[in-house]
Amino acid sequence: MSLHYTLSVVQAPKVMPELPKPTTSQTEGSLCGSNQSAALWADMARWFGNDICSILGNIKSVAFHEVEELRLRVGQPLLLRTADQDLFLDREGEVTSPNKAYFVKQEDFASALERMTHSSVYAAEEDLKQGFLTLPGGNRVGVTGEVIVQHGQIQTLKHISSINLRIARDILGRGLKILPLLLGADGSFAHTLLISPPRAGKTTLLRDLIRLISNGVPHLGLKGLTVGVVDERGELAGMWQGVPTYNLGYRTDVLDGCPKARGMSMLVRSMAPQVMAMDELGHADDVAALLDALRTGVRILSTAHASSLEEVRNRPILAHLLEQGVFERLIVLSREQGPGTVEGVYDLKTGRVL
Amino acid sequence: MLILGCVAFIAGCGSLGLWLANRIRRRPAELRECLMALALLDTEIVWGVTPLPEAFRILKERTERPWQEFFAELQERLERGESASSAWKDTIVTQNEHFCLKQQDWQVIRDVGKGLGRSDSQEQHKQLELIQHQLALIKDQAGVWSEKQAKMWSYLGFLCGIAGVLILI
């Protein structure tokens, strides 16, 4: 199997990032496509106050599926981030230079926050303390502002000054290509670590793998396994008031907002999972708990921040895990050809590239 | 025939008076209901950490008629994505006519909308508590005043009727 391949089937538009923007939107800009994009923009626009709402509603030159982030910073121009570009928007929703763009006002934050929380900022306090909000639909909104600290504990966030709306993409079947490589000779699921730099689709791929493992893939001979998910940052299941916004499969139990170290032992004891999945491994406590959980025979599926195998080996905590021989497979993602580019899948036992 | 006409006239004036008296009596009752609703909203926000649309749905179920419709409209507006403060203001405008409250009552109730849902639960609690105190004061005054007024109107209606009959005859 080749080292470099992209998941181009499901990510069709991202195959040609080198094409100039207007052409891309025109090639697939059949009436249906652009209508759909406008509808999606309108759907996104409802989270903002009137000014930004109308800007987003008027966007024509940028296709919705190309945008990864929407950033608002107080007193700074409105910014869209695509896979490879930063685009500034003006009042009419057109792409322009930074100094002609629409400058975000304080009032925009107040009304955005109001709409994102259904006018109930107090109900989102727990999330705000961690610096984010989850919108129904699973989009994650990062926020920064003035932090109020009392007795060394973060009480709340006031005077929000930056909002980063990360547009969640739930692409079904993405993990299907990789999954065969993660099965051992006897067809059982191997302990897997997924590494990538930020914004390379780590969480999205993890989510997809969880769903596949949980549902089972008959043509690979993989029966559905019970999956326990420790969702410390609420990103995997996108829980919104107890309702998951992402489909994580038939046999998945989610422990939401729980610190990984505690959550792992809780899940092992209470839900007897066959596979345990978690995001962003990296703390010493996590590793201890993970080694502990391994004794019960549970399979591990996790992610970590690192851009290559070498980097993992240089990080003491992750290196320790590798030396212990905990993980059997390592998936490396990059943004080489758009988010979700699989750089390689390694068999850590033999050191081979699969 | 004449007697029948007189009786009808007196009954008409009397029932007009009774209707007015009834309206006056409803004001403290509506204020009491509002106080109860605000107390409920307060507990929903502070202890339940319930988002406002959901909290208004609960209020809708727990209150009686004019307020029930008031909260129903609020819930609908919030679910449509309107901000709490503007929804509160606009709902007062549209629902105003179903109530027997006076302008001064609305002035206090309108303050609930200011900053509703815009801050943390402690802040919300303080604000709601303040308004509850003000409303309680108004309600006490209204109780005494309306009892007197209601009594007056219920007599006055009949008396006016009788007086009118006497003059006409």
Task: Give the strand tally of chain B.
Answer: 0
**Number of separate structural domains of chain B:** 1
Question: Major β-sheet of chain A, in short?
Answer: 8 strands, mixed
**Strand coverage percent of chain B:** under 5%
Mean pLDDT of chain A equals 81
Helical segment tally of chain A?
10
- Kindly estimate the percentage of residues of chain A that lie in beta strands according to DSSP: 15-25%
For this entry, what is the oligomeric state of its chains? heterodimer
State Rg of chain B: 21 Å
Helix fraction bin of chain B: over 70%
What's the CATH architecture name of the largest domain in chain A? 3-Layer(aba) Sandwich
Count structural domains of chain A.
2
Q: Report the helical percentage of chain A.
A: 25-40%
Mind describing the biggest β-sheet of chain B?
none
Please give the alpha-carbon distance between the first and last residues of chain A: 6 Å
Structural class of chain A: alpha/beta
- The low-confidence parts of chain B are none
CATH superfamily of the largest domain in chain A: P-loop containing nucleotide triphosphate hydrolases
Q: Can you describe this structure in just a few lines?
A:
The complex is a heterodimer of chains A (354) and B (169). Chain A is α/β, with parallel strands linked by helices and 354 residues long.
